[in-house]
Amino acid sequence: MTARGFGGIGVLILLSAASASAQKTDPRPDALGRDTPRGTVIGFIAAARDGKDDIASQYLDSGLRGRAATELASKLYVVLNGRLPARLNELSDQPEGSRTNPFAPNRDVVGTIPTSGGDMDIAVERVTAQSGTRVWLFARTTLQSIPEVYNEIDLLSIDRYLPRFLTVRIAGIRLFEWLALLVLVPLLYRTLAAVDWLIRTGYARWRRRRDPGAVSRASTLMPRSLRLFVLALAIHLFVPNVDLPLVERQMWGIVAAAFAVAGVVGLMLQGIGGSEDYLLRRMQAGHLAESRALLRLLRRVAELLVVASGVVLMLHRLGIDPTAALAGLGIGGIAVALAAQKTLENVIGGFSLVFDNAIRVGDFLKLSDVTGTVDHIGLRSTRIRTLDRTIVTVPNGQIATASIETLSRRDKFWFHHTVGVRYETTGVQMRTVSENITALLLQQPRVDRESVRVRFFRLGPSSLDIEVFAYLYAADWERFLMVQQELLLHVMDIIEEAGTAIAFPSQTVHFAPDSLPTLNAAR
Fold this sequence. Notes:
Layout: H1 3-25, H2 37-49, H3 53-56, H4 67-83, E1 107-115, E2 118-128, E3 134-138, H5 140-143, H6 146-150, E4 169-170, E5 173-174, H7 175-210, H8 224-238, H9 246-285, H10 292-317, H11 323-339, H12 341-355, E6 364-367, E7 370-377, E8 381-386, E9 391-395, H13 396-400, E10 404-406, E11 413-421, H14 427-443, E12 453-459, E13 464-472, H15 477-497, H16 516-522
Antiparallel strand pairs: 1-2, 2-3, 4-5, 6-7, 6-10, 7-8, 8-9, 11-13, 12-13
Helix pairs in contact: 2-4, 7-8, 8-9, 9-10, 14-15
C-alpha cells in the first residue's frame, strides 16, 4: 500500500474519532423531552392525559414493567393532576436542573403536595437511560408513596353535574371553565358592588332616622381593588377543593394572581392619589399652591413605577424572565438621562426649591443681580418680575445652587439712621434729643426694646451725628415703611422741641486780613 493510502486511512481514523467524540460530548436530545425537569413533568402529564399509559410509564424510575408500570403512571397522574401546585412555569428548564440542593445536584423537587401524613415532595432525578442519554425521571422515593396518596384523593367532581357540551375543551380548557371566567366572575364582581351599595344605602337611611340633619358621606366600603382581592381569595379557596385538571388549576392560579396584583396596584394608586390631595391641601394652607405641577409630576412617576412593578410580578408569575427587558430599559433610561441632563437638573432643582420651602410665589428676593418678586415656579424654571415690571426667567437648577436673599421673609426690619444736628447745639440739647428719641422708640409696640440704641457717636464734618438703631416688627415691607415714616416725623419734632435743628451740609470759608486790600484793588 502506498503512503497516500496510509494517509487516507489515517484521515478516516481521525474523522471517526472526532465523530465519536462529538456524539459523546453532544448527545442527541431525548425523544420524549425528558432532558429537563420541566420537560419531564409536562411530557408525563400530556401523555397520561391523552391515555398513552405506555409512554407515560417511561417517565418513571420505578423498575416496573407492563401493567404494573402503567397503573402506577395512571395513579401518579391522578395525584399530580389533583394536587400538584399549578406553577409549571417555575420548574427548571435547564438540563442540569435547578441545583437548589448542592448535596443532591441530580435531584429536583417539582412540587409539594399535602397528604394525611404531612407534606410530600414530588421529586425527579437525573439518571442515565439505556441509550446513554441523561434524562430526568420521577424518583423512586416519590413513586413508593403514590399508591397511598392516590387513595386519599377525594375531591368534588363536577363533571357528573355538567351537560356533555360544557365538557368540550377549547385550548385544553373545558367550556364550563371559560363560561365561569367570562360570566360568573364578572357577575360576582357586580354582586359585591351591589352589596356595598345596599350596605351604604341602609346605613344612610338609619342615620337619617336617628338624626334628620345629619349628612352621611357616600364613601364606598368595598372599593374596586378590594373586590378584586375578594375574587382572588374566593378562587384560591374554591379551586383546590374541586376536581380540576392541572391545566385548568394553572389557569385559575394565573387569574387569581392577576386579580391580586391588580388589587395591590389599585390600592397603591389610590394611596398615591390621596397623598397628593393631602399634600396639596397642606401646601395651599401654607401658600404653596405653586407646587401643584411638581406634585402632579411626582404622582405620575410614582404611578408608573407601581404599574411597572405589577407588570414585572405578573411576568414572573407567568414564567417569563423580565431581566433582559429591565436591563434594556435601564440602558435606555441612562441614555435619556444623559441626553436630558440639564432638563433633569432643573426639574430636580424645582423639587428642592418647593419642598425645602426656599422660595414661594410672592416672595421679594435678590438673586445675583436680579431683584424682584417671584411670579411663578414651574417644573423647569422660575419667573421673577423685576422692579421695572419685566419678567426674568431663571432655570431652577441655577436657583438651587445660588445664594438667595429673600427680603420679604425678614422676621424684623432694621430701623437704622444717622441724625445730624447743627454745631451750635449745646450738650444739654444733645442729651435731651438722645433721651427723647430713646423714649420714643421704647414706647412703640412694634419696636424690639432690647435692640434700641441711640448714641451721640461722631463729630461730623458739618454736623453732630446721633446714631438711631432698632429692629421693628412688621408684616411686610410696606407696613415697615409706614411705621418708619411716623418715627422719623417724631424724631424731627423732638429735635425742634429741643431748640436745635437738623444740620445741612455746609462749609465756612475764612479770609486772612492781608488779602483784603488785594481784593479791594481788584474791584
